[in-house]
Amino acid sequence: MSSQPPGNVHVIGHPLVQHKLSLMRSKETSTSTFRNLLREISMLLAYEVCRDFPTTQVAIETPVAPMMAPVLDGKKIVLISILRAGNGILDGMLEILPSARVGHIGLYRDPKTMAAVEYFYKVPENMTDRDTIVVDPMLATGNSAVAAISRIKASGPKSLKFVCLLTCPEGIAVFHRAHPDVPIYTAAVDERLNEKSYIVPGLGDAGDRLFGTK
Ligand code: URA
Q: Based on the number of CB atoms within 10 Å of its own CB, is 14 exposed (0-12), middle (13-18) or buried (19 or more)?
């Protein structure tokens, strides 16, 4: 289930990530534990996603000597949450990228056309020099992620990555048909989507589990 799939998909198979994901999947896990685990796992995912980000040298003085030291230009990183469950990943990533800028995008599915309809969009100005990480826990049908990435691409970000907790072959195919240039980072690729568009075995409705709305 979690071997590296073909294409632009990075499965984070680290044992800590997998352990926390298994706890999150269990239906016995409470809302508060689920929320904490999502925050923790998001920090670990951020660690992998930032692996190739450039650093710049700044002059500092240690207690012993002056030196040029590498720093990440955190102000150039933008985290964009796909509402509402994306906020769970956002919170965790902000803990280790505290200077990142933040954007939000809200989409709902039109019940007649099934198209993704935007109801909220706010991202930082000057996206052209920003490395952008879009977050949503579940890449299921792929429709909202595709619409969100299309909208964000129009703002011309320097780079774009997509981070989710779980996905499935159907979601990856839809996403990569539309955006083959955008890498997906995920903790697991599950078996399939069911007839209600839930990921199987998955973890249920990520938003409901995160916010305790069901
Ligand atoms: N969204 C969820 O929250 N869970 C799924 O399984 C699919 C989409």
A: middle
